[in-house]
Each structure stands twice: as C-alpha cells, then as structure tokens.
C-alpha cells in the first residue's frame, strides 16, 4: 500500500473514504449495471441532490455530468454564446478558456493581467454575451474577490456569468446565485479520481441554448445542453457515462455532508492560516500572491528561494508529495493543496517541516 501523502493540487490525494467506497462499488457490480436502469437513475438523482445540499445550488439550477472542466469550456461556447465573451485572465486556466474562444473564431475580449496580479478593470464590453471568471486560479493560487463577483452581477444583469469553481468547491463557499453557470472537475478539491466534470446551469442558460438551436445554429451533438436536459430530466445521460465516478462522487458528497459543510469551510480556513503563517515566517519561502484577500485558501502557492527542486525532493523522501509551480513558474514555486481530505494534523505536520527548512 502507498505511504505517500499527496499535497499536489490535481490529481490530488484521494478523499479518505474512497477505498471503502471502491470496494463497495465492486461488491455492488457498479461497473456492470445498465446506465438506462433504475439503479443508475437513483445514483444519478441522489448525487444531484447531495451536490445541491453541499454547494447550496439554487432550486431552479440544473446539474449535469460530463467528462471534465475543459470539456465544459467548449460546451459553454457551443451552447451559451453566439459571437462574443469577456474573460478575466491572470493565470493558465483562465487563459486556456479564452484561447478556446479563439479556436471558435469568437469576437471575444479579455482583461488580462500578469500571472497572479490583481484585476484593475471590471468593465465588460457591451457585445459580450457571457463573462468568464475563474474563482480559484489553480496555476497561481489566486482567488477572485466575491465582492467583485457581486459587482459584476449588478452591472451586467443581462449577460450570462460563468464561474470556474474547480479547486475551490467544496473547500470554500460560493454564492451560486451570483452566476448563471458554474463548473468543476472532481480530481481536485473533491479528492476523486479524474474523469468527471460537473456542470451547473440555470434556466437562462437552458433558454439561451434553445434560442440558439431555434435560429438554426449548432450547439453540438454529444453534450448539447438540450440533450443533457432531456436525458437529465429522466435521471440519465446522453451517453454511457462514467458510472463509477458518479457513484464515488455521490458517496464522497454524502460523507462531506455528514461531516458538515460549515466544518469543512472552517477547517479550510484554519489550515490555510497555518500554511500561510509558516510561508510568511520562512526565510526560504514567500507567498506568491501579494494581496492577502486574493490568496487562495485551497491552493497555497509560495516562491522558493533558489528554486523548488531540493525542497520537493526533501519532502518526497518523507513520502510527502508537494506540487511544483505551473507553466512559467514550474521550477520556482511550490503549490500546496489544502483540500477537505487533508486533516488539520497533516497540514500541521507539513507546516512544521516547512518551518524547519
Ligand atoms: C484543473 C482545472 C481545470 C481543468 O480541469 P480538467 O479536469 O483538466 O478539465 C480548469 N480550471 C481550473 C481552475 C483548474 O484548476
């Protein structure tokens, strides 16, 4: 059995109950059941209901299962946009969604600042139909200020707002009422194996896709929102889905609900404070994000004096796997996941080791 403890941000340390649920899944023949049968339908319905409770998804929002957050970027473009989007970009993930709009020859715009830097301009061009915000930029450990999200909502009542909540939920709260669509992959904060994306949409999104189809435009085939909806209304998916992943998500969501959403959020804060205190007091480490309000609680990023290699190797020798930096910061930064699966004791142990560097 592996002795490793992963503090990488994704794929990440699996949630501590996964092994037990995987065993149960095999005993229950989850890998062999029909995705058109009653058993799957009830797993589907329960998972949605659990996510609704865990993430406070408003009643009139729908939840669909696809393959990843990256897929959802493409589905958003296909279903919710005709010609233009506006993006807030200060890291690799927010940049990648913006790049997709170029692949689709959209007339999109962005407010792009340097990696990890605070945004300065919250105006949105009139032509933009949808605004893209990345809540937790996993590449840099930058968290978007929720007050700015409220302001965007107020200033743009007729545009759609899409919120990337990968690596944010369920570690930190998000007010989904402020956005029209939100989405995540499960291999980060949820601690599940990769291969499942969750797409939350409100009625405005469903209407927009319908309008697009009515006017003769293409919204895709496999995961057109209309197809996700007609199948979802029957607790089914258009294709044979990753049934095992949906089953595991359901189990982990139930475990998290039993633990309590408030407890998860409070523990996340406590562990983040522990990590950032250590990083600030260290002579080797310093926080990458300057502004305290914008420091991610779930992905703690630090610059390492003289590069991260020695530190990462030193920790690996103790079976602690630390994430390297992303993109241009690959060898300069460390990224530490502070997810619900990481206990206070594990984070304290890591902080003690970092403090002794
Ligand atoms: C990881 C990540 C994605 C992409 O997730 P995939 O599962 O690789 O599709 C998108 N946005 C953010 C913020 C991420 O951290």
Your description of this structure?
The structure is a single chain. By secondary structure, this protein is of the alpha/beta class. 39% of the residues lie in helices and 17% in strands. The chain contains eleven helices and 14 strands. The strands form three sheets. It has a seven-stranded mixed sheet with strand order 2-10-9-8-5-3-4, with helices on both faces. A five-stranded mixed sheet has the order 1-13-14-12-11, covered by helices on one side. Helix 1 packs across helix 8 and helix 2 packs parallel to helix 8. The longest helix has 21 residues. The protein is globular and about 65 Å long. The two termini are 29 Å apart. The mean pLDDT is 97. Bound molecules: pyridoxal-5'-phosphate. Pyridoxal-5'-phosphate binds next to helix 3.
Describe the SSE topology:
Layout: E1 5-7, H1 18-27, H2 38-54, E2 62-66, H3 69-80, E3 85-89, H4 92-103, E4 109-112, E5 130-134, E6 136-137, E7 142-143, H5 146-155, E8 160-164, E9 181-185, E10 197-201, H6 203-214, H7 225-232, H8 243-259, H9 261-281, E11 285-287, E12 299-304, H10 309-316, E13 320-324, E14 333-337, H11 344-355
Parallel strand pairs: 1-13, 3-4, 3-5, 5-8, 8-9
Antiparallel strand pairs: 2-10, 6-7, 9-10, 11-12, 12-14, 13-14
Helix pairs in contact: 1-8, 2-8, 9-11
Pyridoxal-5'-phosphate binds next to helix 3.
Strand order of the largest sheet: 2-10-9-8-5-3-4
- C-alpha end-to-end distance: 29 Å
What class do helices, strands and sheet pairing give?
A: alpha/beta
What does the average pLDDT come to? 97
What share of residues are in beta strands? 15-25%
| Biggest beta sheet summary | 7 strands, mixed
Q: What is the helical fraction, as a range of percent?
A: 25-40%
Gyration radius, rounded: 20 Å
SSE arrangement, N to C: EHHEHEHEEEEHEEEHHHHEEHEEH
Ligand inventory: pyridoxal-5'-phosphate
Q: Which parts are unreliable, with pLDDT below 50 for 5 consecutive residues or more? A: none
Task: List the total number of helices.
Answer: 11
């Amino acid at each position: 059995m592996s002795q490793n403890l992963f503090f990488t941000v994704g794929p990440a340390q699996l949630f501590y109950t996964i092994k037990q649920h995987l065993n149960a899944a095999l005993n229950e023949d989850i890998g062999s059941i029909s995705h058109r049968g009653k058993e799957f339908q009830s797993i589907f319905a329960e998972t949605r209901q659990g996510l609704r409770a865990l993430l406070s998804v408003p009643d009139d929002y729908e939840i669909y299962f696809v393959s990843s957050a990256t897929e959802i970027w493409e589905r958003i473009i296909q279903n919710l946009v005709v010609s233009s989007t506006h993006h807030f970009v200060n890291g690799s993930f927010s940049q990648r969604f913006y790049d997709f709009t170029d692949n689709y020859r959209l007339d999109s715009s962005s407010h792009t600042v340097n990696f990890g830097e605070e945004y300065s301009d919250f105006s949105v061009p009139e032509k933009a139909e949808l605004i893209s915000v990345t809540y937790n930029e996993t590449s840099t450990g930058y968290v978007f200020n929720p007050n700015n999200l409220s302001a965007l909502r107020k200033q743009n009542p007729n545009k759609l707002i899409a919120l990337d909540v990968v690596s944010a939920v369920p570690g930190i709260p998000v007010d989904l009422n402020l956005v029209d669509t939100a989405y995540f992959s499960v291999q980060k904060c949820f601690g599940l194996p990769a291969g499942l994306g969750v797409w939350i949409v409100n009625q405005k999104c469903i209407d927009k896709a319908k309008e697009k189809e009515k006017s003769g435009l293409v919204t895709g085939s496999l995961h057109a929102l209309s197809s996700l909806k007609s199948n979802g209304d029957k607790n089914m998916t258009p294709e044979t889905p990753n049934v095992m992943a949906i089953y595991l998500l359901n189990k982990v969501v139930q475990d998290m609900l039993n633990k309590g959403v408030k407890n998860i959020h409070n523990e996340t804060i406590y562990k983040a404070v522990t990590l950032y205190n250590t990083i600030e007091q260290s002579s080797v480490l310093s926080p990458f994000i300057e502004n305290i309000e914008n420091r991610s609680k779930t992905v703690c990023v630090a610059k390492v004096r003289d590069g991260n290699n020695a530190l990462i190797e030193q920790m690996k020798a103790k079976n602690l796997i630390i994430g390297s930096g992303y993109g241009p910061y690959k060898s300069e930064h460390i990224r530490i996941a502070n997810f619900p699966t990481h206990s206070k004791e594990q984070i304290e142990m890591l902080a003690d080791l970092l403090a002794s560097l």
